[in-house]
Amino acid sequence: RWAPPARPELRFVLPDGSARHMQRDQGEPLGRSHGKAARRARSAGGGRRGGRGAVPAVRLFSRDGAAVAEEVPNAAAWQDGAVLHIGDAQYRVERNPPALTELRLPRSLLAGFPVCPKVSAEFAAPQHCLFRWFREQRPAAGGDEAGEAWVETAAAERVFTPSNALVGLRLKLRCTPGDGEQRYGPAREVESSGPVEAGPGACTFDARHLYTKKVCGHGSVRTVSYNILADTYAQTEFSRTVLYPYCAPYALEIDYRQNLLKKELAGYSADLICLQEVDKSVFVDSLAPALDAFGLEGVFRIKEKQHEGLATFYRRDKFSLLSQHDIAFSEALVSEPLHKELCDQLAKYPLVQEKVLQRSSVLQVSVLQSTKDPSRKLCVANTHLYWHPKGNFGTFLHAG
């Protein structure tokens, strides 16, 4: 494995299934790596009773069978298709094989709602990975489990929607990383931390989804803007007793709400989605992986001194991101000549000025380019203006 500027990592899988790892500099001569590999092989095969065996001969041969000179640097020596000989053993060299670095399932699973795993990989892409979903085997009527603990489902896609029949059962995902060139790395498995729970039944957005079943053509753009209520605000006493007294406590929990959000947003088949009050962890661990599975790429801008911010998603087969130009309102107010007149007027009211300059509101600006016609650009502005139930002066100033 070699991803510049990192040091190359060599991994040997031995006949007994164990593995040995080495990290060497990319400019180091191959001969020094040979010596290290020989000592590792002797250490692995010597056994503790009989002592260490002789140091095995180590040679690297290119794909055409020619011996690679020991003076060649590691970066050039280790190529796909080469064969490493360590004593009598032979190892086929696979350079930068696909590998998973993270595989995670959501903590909350609801029947009828999509389960979107978080998949991070090196030298691989989620759209080229293989997915196999398993369900926990339900205990027999007598209470004793019979057969295997897991039963494979028919699902083989990245996103899996459990049915009501799976309520009470846990899920398992087996993912094999791939790079789109018929190369696959070792598979990894992850099990859900809890069982599938019953969903809420019909949702208000189900009727709206009837009109957005398909993505609109290249001549149109469908947009969605949504304040999704950051968890830090949903869990305050003011929120529970004043803003949302009609809402059951479980329905304000972020794990529960994420299930509804992902299903609703995916069901709109939008080309652009602008979200406000997005927790950073929700964007990284939940929304970005989920909407990526539905063809949407996302960018995030956190507010200053806050744990939430703005997220803009765009359909990647329609748009590519050219640039981002995010603006902090309070900073722009005092530094941009365009706003000098407004700033001078605000200075006449010191208390109001102080409140306005303390606000952390930002404007997230994304410049997109059409994938069909690169000459066409689209500037998308996403913001969350300051709001307070007792006054909206901040909103008016930010809008100005």
UniProtKB/TrEMBL annotation:
It holds the Pfam family PDE12-like_N. Gene3D superfamilies: Endonuclease/exonuclease/phosphatase (3.60.10.10). Residues 97-197 form the 2',5'-phosphodiesterase 12-like N-terminal domain. One of its GO terms (cellular component) is mitochondrion. Residues 14-54 are annotated as: Disordered. Residues 18-27 have a biased composition (Basic and acidic residues). GO terms for molecular function: 3'-5'-RNA exonuclease activity. Residues 33-42 have a biased composition (Basic residues). GO terms for biological process: nuclear-transcribed mRNA catabolic process, deadenylation-dependent decay. This is Phosphodiesterase 12.
